[in-house]
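[Automated response] Your request has been received and processed.

Submitted sequence:
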Amino acid sequence: MNIKILTPEYVVFEGEVNSVLLPGKNGEFHIMNNHAGIVSSLIGGKVKLFANSIDDAYAKNFTKENEKDSVFSYSIKSGVVEFNHNKGIILCE
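Generated structure:
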């Protein structure tokens, strides 16, 4: 599935991932391939991308959670996510 993470200043990430874990108002939620369409607000926390790798152009924005798993995290203050037809946009600050 394709995910794009945007801030008002720049594109944090754009590419293919296996899934994404997001900090929602009622707790974390996981969006996987073929997930139903959703629009949700996000609170402060970590956006975690589960991906085989991240393009070098975006790697500087992420922290690798551990060496064993391919989990990359990016901290946000707040935001909104829209996901539909295996494409997601995360607008955040």
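Summary generated for your ticket: The domain at 2-92 is CATH 2.60.15.10 (ATP Synthase; domain 1). Residues 21 and 92 are 14 Å apart (CA to CA).
If you did not submit this request, please reply to this message.
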